[in-house]
Design goal:
Length: 103
């Protein structure tokens, strides 16, 4: 792999989905993306992707507004912490499941 600017050879890696297996039902919160704030969505380009790079489970797809695979997301909140645009908020799983039941 070479860098774009200087051509030096560097090592690189990409997150791999599901290193720790599927989440099951123990996650207590999940990430919710505000697409109006997301830098990649606003520019419609492959920019930023801090959430994708830092997700320890590789549960976020690398595309603008890339969905989070909730089967593998552990709800750790790292994506929300590293987002420079504050476009990701963690939402309680309990609140969202109660809202879905009550309509």
């Amino acid at each position: 792999m070479r860098t774009r600017d200087c051509g030096h050879i560097i090592s690189g890696s990409s997150p791999a989905k599901g290193e720790a297996g599927k989440t099951g039902e123990w996650r207590t919160q999940r990430p919710v993306l505000n697409k109006d704030k997301c830098l990649a969505v606003k520019a419609n380009k492959d920019i930023c992707f801090q959430c994708w790079a830092f997700c320890p489970e590789g549960a976020i797809e690398r595309k603008p507004g890339g969905p989070v695979d909730l089967e593998y997301c552990k709800g750790c909140g790292i994506c929300a912490q590293v987002c420079p645009a504050d476009a990701i908020q963690m939402e309680s799983e309990y609140d969202s499941s109660e809202q879905n039941k009550n309509g």
